[in-house]
């Protein structure tokens, strides 16, 4: 959808010769396999309907996040003044946090016979973790090595509402803001280089290191406040997997 070239170190499926737009139908087939797999393994379980509801809800949330992300980058309607931390947060909460972090833990809770309504604080922690994860992703898109992260970052060219551009607009003076407006969202490598140079001038690497430290401390404090040691252990294992990741 965003015209990328690589994902996880390989060409995007739609760019493979003879695939093209057939990829859209392949996506539909894969999506249909979710309910088939759940039916195959869990139809006799008391939590089966709740599991189906959970997957449907999270799919809707993810698609909504993707929609917000895509409509902020529509050609002819590009407007950097709309880009803010609340908009960035809304996009990543829906597009990334629910399916990447909340869904697997919610599945485990349902299968353990728990009522999800009684675990709102767990959901909140996982959503915060997902937002932190996406900010890392935004940072690595620009500052990470393509060989390590498995894709060539194109957030600048794609006019994405990235944490980096939102932070840059927060920190820069009028002249620097003009530079961002003139060069952000352009495919020309010279324009991309100017934006990256500004990011370095504004020390966005330092700002990210500070954000990562604060996020880790806040998440650790929230996790340790949870009354159940088993839940704490799961949440801490999630956090350990992503803290200071390079890919």
Automatic annotation (TrEMBL):
It comes from the Eukaryota. GO terms for biological process: cholesterol biosynthetic process; farnesyl diphosphate biosynthetic process. Catalyzes the sequential condensation of isopentenyl pyrophosphate with the allylic pyrophosphates, dimethylallyl pyrophosphate, and then with the resultant geranylpyrophosphate to the ultimate product farnesyl pyrophosphate. The keyword Transferase applies. InterPro entries: FPS1-like, Isoprenoid_synthase_dom_sf, Polyprenyl_synt, Polyprenyl_synt_CS. GO terms for cellular component: cytoplasm. Pathway: Isoprenoid biosynthesis. This is Farnesyl diphosphate synthase. It holds the Pfam family polyprenyl_synt.
